[in-house]
Model the fold of this input.
Amino acid sequence: MSRQLRQLLQQAQRNRNPLFLPYICIGYPTYAASLESAKGALRAGAAALELGVPFSDPIADGPTLQKATQISLNRGTKFTDVFRMVKDLRKAGFTQPLLVMSYLNLVEQYGWVRFAQELSRMGGGGAIVPDLPLEQFEKPKKVMAQKGLSLIPFIAPTSSPDRVKKADAQEAPFLYYVSVTGVTGARKRLAPGLLAALRKLRGKLKTPIVVGFGISTPAQAGQVGKVANGIIIGGALVQLISKTKVSRVGKAVETFCRQVVDQLK
Done:
């Protein structure tokens, strides 16, 4: 799965054909509804999924995702439900790469070796751990690689040239570029200077760039897709789900994601 993700991003980089990697919060508003949301996104043409594990102290999440994760936790969602989600999506016939988004505390408690073994066994592709410092990246990256899994580094507008270079040297399928100096969440406008910063970065990096945080609409995704290799949308999807009847969540997510995919063509 790591190889598949790498090939997808390399092809997107060569062809300038950006990919959509939406975020789904596991267990929100229920496990069944989150599974239907994930299926809807994949049916719509999402190249991969970011499956978010709810955590009680999500430091990178804005109010929308914090509320969703708390509801999920209150309804009994556990860390191991991410493996269940990967397994259920594979049983349903979906073949796209599936990435786990989790905070470091949860993975450390579960154990990196055990985490990599279980994720690989279920058919996952890798992990995104926003509070894992680059200084601590090497050991878990090796553990994941032994099971054919990827670990995705972060860079931000505030990252120094040396830090960007270090992230680029990790040989990950992509770098997760945080588009704002803040937390996740839907915003009415793109961050000032984002497109110019991405154009500048693109010429310096060998690793494809996928942009998250603060992208809210298909039109915004289309703008960013002109200078990035992939787009992640999370907060706007959670907002959509919060306003939709549980029985219609899958269809609503599919419709939104199809609009994003169409904007990226």
Observations:
- The longest helix spans residues 249-264.
- The chain is about 45% helix and 10% strand.
